[in-house]
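Write out this protein's structure.
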Amino acid sequence: MEILHEGFIGRDPIAVRVDSMRVALRRREANSVLVDCAQSAAATGDPAARGPQANGPMLAAE
């Protein structure tokens, strides 16, 4: 995940790259995003294999 662009007024909206997609979000929407970086857990479906999870404030921290 990478922040590509921030708007001029209030730094809103932000453009984010997720894999090969570009997504535009308002910061209040970005605070609702949950990011799970454990690809092996998604493949196996085993919730015990998931590592620490980050939530929306990580997007707004930059």
